Amino acid sequence: MSGSPTLDDTALTPLFNAFFRALLTQMHPRMLLMTVLPFIAAVALWGVFLWLGLQPLIDQLHAWFADYGLFRWSGDVLDSLGLSGLKTLLVPLLAMWMLLPMMIVTALLLVGVLAMPAIASHVGRHSFPQLERRHGGTFAGSLWLWLSSFFAFLFAWLITLPLNLVPFFALIIQPLLWGWLTCRVMAYDALADFADTDEMMKIRMSQRFPLLMIGVMTGSLGAVPGLLWLGGAISVIFFPALAALAIWLYLLVFVFSGLWFQHYCLEMLARLRSTPIAGDPANIIEQH
Which pTM was predicted? Predict the structure, then answer.
């Protein structure tokens, strides 16, 4: 038997066990409060930005469309897709879609900074009290992962942005993008305090498919707030209120996602340490 868990060892049962444990943990009053402080911070931040920056962004996009003849080209594309009614709303909707990934990353960053330490402490204390904390993750490592993941996510988002006008395409691409993003950053944060560097690498490599599955499943939930942007004129008129609602929904999804990753990663870490490794008895932890 190898020293790290494999897909055969962990297939679906631990994945869904972690899901139900995360769901129960989400109902804990402390976890429900995890969205309050990030929500206040995000609404304050985006309230100021939208007040000062939304109209200039729309004006700049309108100027680019006029200067480069994009209104005629985009009109032809919308006509061919049967979406000619969106012509007059195209620029405001595009501005909103450009802001959406920034809202997503803001929510993810706030959950990572303000909620993930409490999530790790709560799950570790109540569900895995036997696990020794070896602190293999670092703030610098987490920061680099956040930044590199953000720019890769933003690039992919911008490349696929026009395709969000195609019906149902957003339901496919958003969960995939979310799955990759949350898998990269939350698996690291979930293990940072508990695993050493070698254990983190082993678990993130051997469990990359289950971790991606968690990311895609929660990414499917994360696509729901983005559907608020598909309401045409209603989305434009009620944009500030919809933005606040979307941010809160993102925070709920990210807190649940963090709990699911935390339960699964610590379960895999407990299994890894309970597997005898020749010549390294210090890594053996008895299961209770």
Answer: 0.73
